[in-house]
Amino acid sequence: MNAHFFGAKRAFYATLRVARPALAELGLTPARFDLMYALLPAADQTFFRLRQSELRDVLGVSGATVCRMLRSLETLGFIKRRREESEKRQRIVELTKEGVARVRAVCDDLIDSDSVALALDSALGGERWLDRGYCFLEKDTADSVFRRIRHGFGDKATLTYRWHYDD
């Protein structure tokens, strides 16, 4: 393994160690949350909807992975699938009321409460973790590096999370 690949892998696992316990309290995993987060705009807008096949592109995973995730989320009562009227082979995926409540709870508890931002500020800012300007620049640099790595290695996932007011 390459030192940078190993570093990226370990950073990923470290973020999961932070996210998993908070998500587990709501019956979710990080991967399930990403999928449900992708569906949230559809819950707020009647004209926005996602087909099961589109979730592959949004998440950057295989169709089989999406199918397996949807099956488990459907069993938990967090999503529902229905056949598209105009094209019977396509399935529309929607959050249930319980699914919307779970996603919004995570957004409220972790994202909008700045818990994740504080964790990142502490990790990236070091002794300057209270300096909002410095931490913003550190997060912007990290975001740029992640974007370049994803682009360089051909990552096709399109799901985006807001992390500052310009997003």
- The global form is globular
Percent strand = 5-15%
Q: What string, H for helix and E for strand, traces the elements in order? A: HHEHHEEHHH
Sequence stretches where pLDDT stays below 50 over 5 or more residues: none
Q: Would you tell me the overall average pLDDT? A: 89
Could you explain how this protein is built, in words?
- Strand 2 (about 80-85) and strand 3 (about 90-95) form a beta hairpin.
- Helix 6 (about 115-125) packs across helix 7.
- The chain starts with a helix and ends in a 15-residue tail after the last helix.
- It is globular.
- It has helices spanning about 5-25, 30-45, 50-60, 65-75, 95-110, 115-125, 130-150, and strands at about 50, 80-85, 90-95.
- With about 170 residues, it is mainly α.
- A three-stranded antiparallel beta sheet has the order 1-3-2.
Essential attributes:
63% helix, mainly alpha, globular, 167 residues, single chain
Give a summary of the structure in a few sentences.
Helices cover 63% and strands 7% of the residues. It has helices at 3-24, 30-44, 52-59, 63-76, 97-111, 115-125, 132-152; strands spanning 50-51, 79-83, 91-95.
Write the layout of secondary structure elements.
Layout lengths: L2 H22 L5 H15 L5 E2 H8 L3 H14 L2 E5 L7 E5 L1 H15 L3 H11 L6 H21 L15
Antiparallel strand pairs: 1-3, 2-3
Helix pairs in contact: 3-4, 6-7
